[in-house]
Amino acid sequence: MIAQEVDGENTTWKATVSNNTAAALEEGGASQSQAAMRLDQDVVFYWRLQDGLPGRVDMVAYRDPEVSKRGTVKLTFTPGDDLIPVTQGRDWVLVLDKSGSMSGKYSTLVEGVRQGLGKLPEQDRFRIVMFDNSTYDLTGGFIAVNQANIEKALQDVEQVEPSNGTNLYEGMEAALRKLDDDRPTGVVLVTDGVANVGVTEKRHFFALMEKYDVRLFTFIMGNSANTPLLVPMTKLSNGVATSVSNADDIIGHLMNITSKLTHQAYRNIQLDIDGVKIKDLTPEQISSLYRGEQLTVFGHYFKGGEAQVTLTMDIAGESREYRTKVMLPDVASSHPELERMWAFSAIRDLQAQMDYLEQKDSDKEQAIEDIALEYGLLTDYTSLLVVEEEVFQQLGLERKNQARVLKEQTAREVKNNQPVKPTRADSNQPMFTQPAPTHSGGGSGGGSMNIFILLAITLLGAGRVVIGQKQKRQNQKH
Q: pTM above the 0.85 mark?
């Protein structure tokens, strides 16, 4: 593992990545090294905001009117630290998967629980619920955070041998019993499996979460978990779902979530933009932001000009409004990759809507395929075709993706030879009056996946084309 620091006018972040991707990041693309193009390892980033940065709005745009009137903009909101601490004690319910598929990860889970509990203040309480085929209340209800209780609970957790299937519903149902309505409650779910015992239909999990005013923080371990269930279930509670790969640090994640209930949170966030027509905003719904998180939104605009940006949020039942003005450029050529970043976020939105409704939607499926084909992205409805040059000609496949990747690579080379340009867009009229908190749990609403997209789309270069299901069936006939 290596650490890399990137300094700019507005922010400093540290990225920890695998050795196979280090060269790609340092050189600005995966094409610099054959080893950097391996896809058998995960890319893991950790970052936090630099001390002393102001709350602010950053903006990056791309618009080439000679090619299209439609431009793409990315707005990143970093709220100031105006969320006051929660002084009353909190309750924590740790819901831990002890099914057989956790065998290789269980020791890491135990150490994460150890360090996470060690960070809780004495006024908090905790409870540990474990599940496989059945459910086990290891602590017999809520117990005070003190050294004796933590040591006893950890001894019990360490003695568990992972086995059997995964009755996730029963585990969640047990965790939500006997809550104290007078205390803020966080439910921490750590699982790597698919619900395969007992109740498995998503609608029952959603109905369960809608009954309780709690925040669910889900850690999805491994790359084969049931994210279409776990992510929307977590969003229903205004919580946070985090995918934790085998190369990731579950310990750090578990320690991080304890900060989510130490301060108030932004709820029912609304974004309004006037003065310049911006369409196709993604994500469409923004439920909540916790202290230290950023909000990233993508959209399309069709003419440059000054836009009035308004964020409305609820904090502890009180509505607050934050305003600023930003100037969208008529011409901006430095960031063509924004087009595909918008597409990725839009596809994710559409897929999340289908996952929540637990039903197929032919219109949404067609929309996903259309977006993926236009921007050269892989989805469940498109395929990557790798063939010789003459085969493209025989099949009549247009190489749009090759031209797009070349444009992105050229723009990146130009940026590499120029000074870093500031991206803050609200300097004349700051949206937030206080400095940003340095602690960060990652981006929200798409912010944390931007670097991943840049790496992933770079791999789709010459000799490759993305095709839809209809084209795929036609090719199979040939």
A: no
